[in-house]
TrEMBL record:
Residues 71-205 form the Tll0287-like domain. It comes from the Bacteria. This is DUF3365 domain-containing protein. PROSITE patterns: PROKAR_LIPOPROTEIN. It comes from Hymenobacter telluris.
Length: 229
């Protein structure tokens, strides 16, 4: 066999081996390939439309106010059991709770509870009957280039609240009402019944906070795989 022929044969065998090694059924898949693809998609800059921002405003408002309502029920239940109305009265300000304030900072939001019959005059607002209808849909709006607002009714749906906001002499003990009026001389927040709207949550949010919440809400997260064995 001539040297030239031997070289051609060796080259042919080498190319054949390389092609075989690159066949589709022998390609090794990248480890965590799906996770890498998901991470790359999450890092892709996406345009957030005005409708997306309004949707995110509702999501963010729901998250903030539900957290506040949930923690308020828990705190008031503990305080009422421990020391009655006297112990619970200073804590009926859920917008000031640490966890609520922390979430508000993330959203760049300011949350307030407003009513036409306030305990604290600073919380009075001219609300319409539609605003106070228990079945009113959440109201979201863009009130400025960088400002979004959220509003929903606050409904008295926990009997515990009647001890401070129910009917005096029936739900509220006279001694407890004396404590309330001592701290809030202009109190109007009594006479409510279960299922009645007491006021509204009003939340104002900055556009950057709403956009960040939208990004977090729509980010894709890999679900952990279940073990087969």
């Amino acid at each position: 066999m001539s040297p030239v022929f031997r070289r051609l044969t060796a080259t042919t065998l080498l190319l054949t081996g390389l092609l075989s090694a690159c066949s589709s059924d022998q390609i090794e898949h990248i480890k965590n390939g799906k996770k890498i693809a998901r991470d790359l998609e999450n890092m892709t800059v996406k345009r957030i439309l005005p409708a997306d921002l309004l949707r995110a405003t509702r999501w963010a408002g729901d998250s903030l106010t539900r957290q506040a309502d949930r923690e308020l029920r828990q705190v008031l239940n503990e305080k009422l059991q421990a020391g009655g109305v006297a112990a619970a009265l200073p804590y009926c300000r859920p917008e000031t709770f640490a966890s609520v304030d922390s979430l508000a900072r993330v959203l760049q939001a300011t949350a307030r509870r407003r009513t036409v019959r306030p305990r604290n005059p600073a919380n009075q607002a001219p609300l319409t009957p539609t605003d106070l209808a228990p079945d009113t849909a959440r109201q979201v709006a863009r009130t400025g280039a960088d400002v979004f607002t959220y509003q929903r009714p606050i409904v008295l749906n926990d009997a515990l609240c009647l001890r401070c906001h129910g009917e005096v002499g029936k739900d509220i003990a006279p001694a407890d009402y004396a404590l309330i009026t001592k701290q809030f001389p202009q109190d109007k927040a009594t006479g409510y019944r279960l299922g009645q709207a007491m006021g509204v949550w009003q939340v104002s949010m900055q556009r950057t906070g709403v956009a960040e919440f939208y990004t977090m809400k729509t980010r894709k997260i890999m679900k952990p795989r279940k073990k087969l064995f």
